[in-house]
Every structure is written in C-alpha cells, then in structure tokens.
Amino acid sequence: MITGVAFCPQAPALDPAVGRGLDAELGPVRRACRAAVARVATSGTSLVVVGGTPGHDVATWVMTDAVGHESWTAAAADDGLAGRLDGAHPVAVVVLGDGSARRSEQAPGHLDARSAGFDEGVTAALAGGDPARLAALDGDLGCDLLAAGVPAWHAVAAALGARRFTADVLYDDAPFGVGYVVAVWS
After folding, report:
1. Measuring CA to CA, how many Å separate 148 from each of 8, 42, 67, 128?
2. Quick one: DSSP state of residue 65?
3. pTM value?
4. Which of 146, 154, 169, 149 lies closest to 100, judged by CA?
5. pLDDT, tens digit, for every residue of 6-55?
6. Is 85 helix (H, G, I), strand (E, B) or coil?
7. Domain spans, the chain
8. Are 73 and 46 in contact (CB under 8 A)?
9. Residue 101: which H helix or E strand, with range?
10. Which of 24, 49, 158, 174 is spaced 20 to 30 A from 96 at the CA atom?
C-alpha cells in the first residue's frame, strides 16, 4: 500500500559533496528535497526510490545525508514497478527525475522554446496529484527536451493507477536551465 510519494530532481549537484559552492543556486531545491522526503518517510515503513542518474547516486544523498534514512530499496522504472509496490505493507516512494534540460542558452541541451511549456505541464501534473496526468506527459517530447524524469514519472504513474492524491509543490524552478520540481503526494 503506497502511503505517499515524494518527487525530487535527480541532478548529481544536489549532493553538496558534488555541487560544492552552489549553495546559492541549489540551497532552495536541496531544502525542498529534504522536506519532501521527510514528509513521506514518516508515512511508510518501507522506502522505495525510483529513477535517478547512472554514475552518481543522488538517492544516497537524499535518503541518508538529507533525511537520515539508511534503509531503503532502489526500484527500476519499468513495467514491473507496480508489482513491487503493491501489497498490504505501507510503502513511501521517492521518485527522482529532472524536467527539461533545455530552458536556457546555458542549459545542457541549449534553449528549446518548447521546454518551458513542457515543464509547466510537469508541474501541473504534479500539482494535481493525478497519476493519469503524469502518465499523459509526452514521452517523445520529453526525450527531445532531455527531460530525464519522464521514464520514472510514467512508471510511477502506472503503478499508482487511478488513485488520487493531495498534492503540494514545494519547489519549481530551472537553475542552470534544467527544470526541477519538488512535490509531495499524500
């Protein structure tokens, strides 16, 4: 039984050990991630992390350093996710994923005029607490815009099914030209 979901960016620089000297730019999103994970971690006895960046484990920072939870499980963002989250045991899910990486000329993918609208759709889906809206995000457009979170968002939306949540968006901005949203579903 899923008791809550926290959505956080997956950027390696969120880990202060990697993103040294970036407190001004990343301090607000780091604080929002800590708050989001802390809120759902109290609601479930098991913690499952979905998504993230290969090569650097942002999940370790979020779960251990940021909120002090050393016991959690990583799950692949695939078709089998629903089966791993289904059951009578309470589970809190932490979803790691970035929005568009094309929000400015300095962004990793350079500017694409479609990126702001795409990220507005991501924020609206997360603010709505509706997995169907999250599932409806255009995966092909997300790929064009280097939105690395789309596979994890789609997998979690499929796992949650028709359930509705109370949503709270804690952060929505694009430092470094990459869309970062932090939200909680409860």
Report:
1. 12, 27, 24, 21
2. I
3. 0.93
4. 146
5. 999 998 888 888 888 888 888 999 999 999 998 998 755 688 888 876 65
6. helix
7. 2-185
8. yes
9. none
10. 24
pLDDT tens digits, one per residue of 128-165: 999 999 999 999 999 999 999 999 999 999 999 989 99
Q: Which two tokens stand for residue 147?
A: 């939105």
- Looking at domain 2-185, does it have CATH number 3.40.190.10? no
User: Where are the strands (E) in the chain, listed by range?
Assistant: 2-8, 46-51, 73-75, 91-96, 167-173, 180-185
91 with 115: CB under 8 angstroms? no
Q: Considering only CA atoms, give the Rg of the chain.
A: 15
Q: Distance between CA atoms of 143 and 185, rounded to whole angstroms?
A: 25
Phi, psi dihedrals of residue 183, rounded to the nearest 5°: -145, 160
